[in-house]
Amino acid sequence: MNEISSLINILALTQLSGSNTTNQCNCTYNNSSGFDMIMMTLLKALSQNNQHTSNSYNLLSNSENLFNELDNVVNNTTSRFIDVDTKDKNVKLRIENAVDQASKKYNVDSNLIKAIIKVESDFNPNTVSSAGAKGLMQLMPENCRDLGVTDPFNIEQNIDAGTRHIKEYIDMFGGSIEMGLMAYNGGPGRMKSRGVESISDLYKMPKETQNYIPKVMKYYRG
């Protein structure tokens, strides 16, 4: 069922992208054929599970839950305002201003920037991950070096660099936000080594990345 769950996430992401729509990242989508392909793969996976499962009732029950989960994600596709959830008014104001400036500077939707920050650090500028990623948008040391960040805990530096970073990845993958997020979390090198060529290959990435993209898109789309 894990494989089917991954396909559900991918299918939801394909729907979230819309059909022939353009967003503030200058990202254009046309996922009709991709949706059909993923749907066929999903149905095939369900069929295979049915052949190898002794208790068909449990399979149908699990499948129904997965489709309900998909329905919830797909039906919540309207972009909304994301509030900066922090009690420190000064930090809140600085984050809001930095996001606004970075959004205009790099032409990235401010809601997408906030969605990434929400998932990465929950708006805590002092967050440090076990892997060594730092600050609001969780920049790794090599990212800081390449992006010219001298203080990853500085709100303005971190958001400017993180936004530039995600913009580079979105552009790298032809305007796809989902593919950009996959690279931001999992790394373009890993994507290449695992043969990831489209969002339908998300299942090839680690579970962390498989979960990361739907989380960000959920906040981004509301």
TrEMBL record:
Its EC number is 4.2.2.-. One of its GO terms (molecular function) is lyase activity. It is an enzyme of class 4 (lyase). Keywords: Lyase. Pfam families: SLT (PF01464). Residues 99-193 form the Transglycosylase SLT domain. PANTHER family: MEMBRANE-BOUND LYTIC MUREIN TRANSGLYCOSYLASE C, SOLUBLE LYTIC MUREIN TRANSGLYCOSYLASE-RELATED. This is Transglycosylase. It comes from Clostridioides difficile. The gene is mltD.
